[in-house]
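Work Package 4 report. The design task specified in the project plan requires that, given a folded chain encoded as structure tokens, an amino acid be chosen for each position. We show below one input record used in the internal validation round.
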């Protein structure tokens, strides 16, 4: 009689389990790769949009060239624009900068196409020095075309405040606005904000200033009315200065509706109300006497 030993999991069974585990981990890795790639693409697109907004601000606000701004203590950018048709190849340009009593250094350049037939030439430094003058020169084909001096701490251009949130308070005609400041360590107390608000059907914005705080209560608003609210930021100009950031995206919210108070609910302590009631009582008594 032939006996059969119990199957305790031979090599083929173990191989099958390993194969399933490998397939599972490969699928997980593929999913993470797709998510990471999508996140990187989204961040890259958003970064390009943010840079484009800052370029637009600098073209309007800074009359000098090259136009320069600091996004943080370790993030400094200068750029200038030229007509696409007249621009030379990148190797024909040089950007040199010098700090006081130091030898000059060269900043690597890159160029990107811009709107309206322009091309931007960009220098980016990760370790700019502050509280010392920076002198810069731009050459094209060996000839000086731009020359400028500045202090890095005076040209900050921050990202707009994030997570702008608007909620109703328990009182009529009020809205509570909060936001998250740009992530700059030890500089929160140097930030000044503008909170701008308007009814949704109006282009007349009202502005409130806020210093070293990330919250504001708007008062005196119309009841039962939809408002749009936005916030921007700059440094206060004491130790650090610069330009107003772009506005945050507008947040829409409706204020509490008006409450109609009946005569039976008028405050009894109000002298004018008591007098009005006496007049009504007197008139009523006079009619009954007729």
């Amino acid at each position: 009689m032939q006996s059969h030993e119990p199957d305790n999991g031979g090599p083929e069974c173990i191989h099958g389990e390993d194969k399933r585990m490998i397939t599972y981990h490969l699928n997980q890795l593929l999913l993470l790769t797709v998510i990471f790639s999508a996140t990187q693409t989204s961040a890259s697109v958003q970064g390009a949009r943010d840079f484009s907004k800052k370029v637009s601000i600098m073209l309007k606000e800074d009359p000098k060239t090259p136009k320069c701004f600091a996004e943080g203590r370790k993030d400094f950018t200068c750029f200038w624009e030229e007509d696409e048709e007249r621009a030379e190849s990148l190797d024909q340009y040089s950007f040199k900068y010098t700090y006081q009593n130091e030898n000059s250094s060269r900043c690597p350049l890159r160029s990107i196409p811009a709107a309206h037939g322009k091309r931007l030439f960009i220098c980016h430094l990760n370790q700019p020095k502050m509280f010392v003058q920076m002198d810069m020169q731009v050459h094209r084909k060996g000839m000086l075309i731009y020359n400028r001096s500045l202090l890095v701490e005076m040209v900050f251009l921050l990202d707009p405040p994030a997570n702008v949130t608007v909620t109703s308070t328990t009182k009529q005609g009020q809205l509570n606005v909060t936001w998250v400041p740009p992530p700059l360590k030890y500089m929160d107390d140097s930030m000044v904000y503008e909170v701008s608000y308007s009814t949704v059907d109006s282009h007349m914005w009202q502005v409130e200033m806020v210093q070293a705080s990330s919250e504001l209560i708007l008062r005196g608003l119309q009841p039962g009315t939809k408002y749009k609210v936005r916030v921007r930021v700059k440094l206060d100009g004491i130790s650090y200065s610069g330009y107003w950031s772009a506005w945050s995206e507008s947040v829409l919210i409706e204020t509490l509706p008006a409450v109609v108070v009946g005569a039976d609910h008028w405050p009894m302590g109000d002298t004018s109300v008591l007098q009005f009631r006496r007049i009504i009582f007197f008139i009523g008594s006079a009619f009954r006497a007729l």
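The longest strand covers residues 226-235. Validation will be extended to a larger panel in the next phase.
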